[in-house]
Specification:
Strand order of the largest sheet: 2-3-1-4-5
Radius of gyration: 25 Å
Number of helices: 14
Shape: globular
Helix content: 40-55%
Length: about 350
């Protein structure tokens, strides 16, 4: 190649370089189009599979669907919704549900919203509530997706789904998401990410006051728990913080933290064995339990962390995280004990007595 550069006139060298650049741009553009086409094909196949299921049961199960819902046993008429927050180990946990669904006989459904928008339109809210509550062929079911909390009682539903979730230290979550957008992870390493090619570190972004690491980007876990109210998505809203706390305590059966995911899995198995029997052992030994790891992630410096911690937004998100952590540790303290470095679940600690009448 060096010999060719010597022999070629500068004008032809420039033309050759320009032609190479154009060819690379064209190739990159074609790869991007192929990725988009593949995504569209996957969504089309998923929609086709759902239509096939619906059509098959329309033909064969009309009489069964018209029967009262009470014919479903309590263990079968159960729906769990995991409205997963991005970059909180949600893929690792969801893979456990996928691995167990065949053995434990339940359905797993991914809620895939357009552009990962966590807020549904009012008509989609109605459709979703109707699907979840009336789609008997899919029960028992485990739904998961990046959607904010939805209050089913607003739609006149008698039996609400069971909500669960996992949250993470807000700065650690933001750092993970920052590098994920640029370098992806080991789950789908060939997929081109939105910020691919941007080599700027998180610390450099904070130092330069970049938008991708701004305190406003921390505002995510609160609105995910707050829900579909407009105030939930007003950055820095104290009302949203209090509503998120209220929902966490009153609407969620269990909310874990990324840093103590094994304990979260263990308690779910104890509380909901219909779904999670075998989950703890799978988490400890399975290859998929730690499947997804963000690539090229560099821990932020103390200076970057301190700068973010000066913002009122971080203080609110951190307050919510600490609130969730305290609640989780309270639940765990009444469910789990540690002995010789191993965790074990407490046995049943209540019983019945003075049962009357005696006959």
């Amino acid at each position: 190649m060096g010999l060719l550069r010597v022999m070629m006139p500068p004008k032809f060298q420039l033309l050759a370089l320009l032609a190479f650049a154009v060819a690379m741009f064209f190739l990159e553009n074609q790869i991007q189009k192929l990725e988009e086409s593949r995504g569209k094909l996957e969504r089309a196949i998923a929609r086709h599979e759902v239509r096939e299921i619906e059509q098959r049961h329309t033909q064969d199960g009309q009489r069964e669907r018209e029967a009262p819902a009470s014919l479903l046993s309590d263990s079968e008429d159960v729906v769990i919704i995991y409205n997963r927050v991005p970059k909180t180990a949600s893929t690792s946990f969801t893979n456990i549900a996928y691995d167990l669904c065949g053995k434990n006989r339940y359905h797993v459904l991914h809620i895939n919203t357009t552009k990962n928008n966590p807020v549904m339109s009012i008509q989609d809210q109605v459709r979703f509530v109707k699907n979840v509550t009336e789609w008997r062929e899919m029960k028992p079911a485990f739904y998961h997706g990046h959607v904010s909390f939805l209050d089913f009682t607003k739609f006149g539903v008698k039996r609400k789904p069971i909500y669960i979730n996992v949250i993470r230290d807000p700065i650690e979550r933001l750092v993970s998401y920052y590098y994920f957008l640029r370098f992806g992870d080991d789950y789908r390493p060939g997929l081109r990410r939105r910020k691919q090619g941007d080599k700027k570190t998180f610390d450099e972004c904070v130092s330069a006051g970049g938008s991708d690491c701004a305190p406003e980007k921390l505002w995510l876990q609160i609105p995910f728990f707050c829900g579909h109210y407009s105030e939930c998505w007003n950055v820095g809203s104290h009302w949203a913080l209090e509503q998120a706390k209220f929902n966490l305590v009153n609407e969620y059966m269990l909310v874990g933290v990324t840093e103590e995911l094994e304990d979260f899995v263990m308690m779910l198995e104890a509380a909901l064995p219909r779904f999670f029997k075998g989950a703890t052992e799978l988490y400890k030994t399975g290859k998929k339990s730690h499947l997804r790891k963000t690539s090229e992630k560099k821990p932020p410096t103390k200076e970057s962390v301190a700068k973010l911690q000066q913002s009122a937004i971080w203080k609110m998100e951190n307050e919510f995280y600490e609130f969730a952590l305290e609640q989780f540790q309270f639940v765990r303290a009444h469910a789990v004990r540690e002995k010789d470095g191993e965790l074990y679940l407490l046995a049943q600690n209540f019983f019945y007595e003075k049962i009357y009448p005696k006959n």
